[in-house]
Amino acid sequence: MARITDWRRLHGSAFEGRAVLITGGAGFIGSHLASALDELGAKITVLDDLSAGGDGKSLPKKVEFALGSILDESLLQKCTDGREFVFHQAAMGSVPQSIEQPGRYQLVNSTGTLNVLEAARKGKVRRVMFAASSSAYGDSEVLPKIETMPVTPRSPYAATKAAGESLLAFYCACYPLDTVSLRYFNIFGPRQSAESAYAAVIAAFAKALLSVKSPTIHGDGEQSRDFTYVDNAVHANLLAASRKNPIGGTVINVACGERITVNQLAAQMARGFGREDLQPIHAAERAGDVKHSLADLGRAREILNYHPIVDFSTGLQTTLAWYRTAMR
Length: 328
Hints:
It contains eleven helices and 13 strands. By secondary structure, it is α/β, with parallel strands linked by helices.
C-alpha cells in the first residue's frame, strides 16, 4: 500500500523509545496507529481479541502482540504496566448492531473503557487517548457540531461512547492521570473491513461495486457526513499524546471539516471504479442513523494544533486503490 503521510516529518523524535499500549491495535484505526508509532520508534504493545475482523498480520514486526480482551483485567494490567501512553481504540463499532446487542455494547465499550482507565491509573500511565465518536451529538440539525453542544446519543453505540467520555473526564479529575476524548467523524481508509453486514458505508460501497452490484443507500442519500481519512485520526492521537501541557479530559473533534452526501459519495466511488452503470438502490432508513454531520475544528486547532493532513478526495483515491487490490 502506498504511504501518503511522512510521520517523521510531522512528529520527529517525539515517540522515540517511548512505551505505548494500543487497545484494539490490530483493528482498522489501531493498526494504522501502530504503523505510525513504529515508524516513529516507539515501543508498542497491542492488545486485541481480533473480534473486529483484524488478524494482526498488518502490524509491524517489532510490535508486542497480546491476544485478549479489555474485559480480561489481569491481562490488561500486564499490558498497561510500564507504558507511558495508552491509545484506547478497542470497541464494538456499529450503530445497527448495537441496537440488536445493547447489553454486549454496554459491557465491551463502557465497562471495557472503565477497565482501561483503572489499569492506566494503577500502572501510572501518563495519558489515555480515547476513540470517542461524533455519534454523541445525536440528530441535532445544528451545523457544524461543536464540542459545547449537548450530548444526545440516539443508539446504544453512541450512548456507550458518550459514557466513555464521562469516564475519562472523572478519572482525570479524581486521579493523577491525564485523558482526552477524540471524537472521530466517519473515519475511512485502507484495511477497513467490508466483510460484515454492519460494514461502514465506504467499505460496503467498495465491496458492492467491485462485485458488480449496485450499492445500497439507506434513505434518500442526502444525509451527509464529515468523512475523515484514517491518517487524520492517527495524527490527532499523536498530537494529543505528545502535548506537554495537560489536556484535562477535554473532548476534541477529529475530522476534515467538509460535508459530503451519501449520494455524492456513491457517485464518486462509481466513477473511481469505472462502474457508473451501477446505480444505487435505495432502502429504508436505519434506526439510530443521524441525518447530517460536520465538525467544527476550532478546539482541535487551539489545543492540539490539529489540521487535516489528508483531504477527502486524496484519501478516497488511496482507499479505492487499496480495495481494488484487496478484493481481487
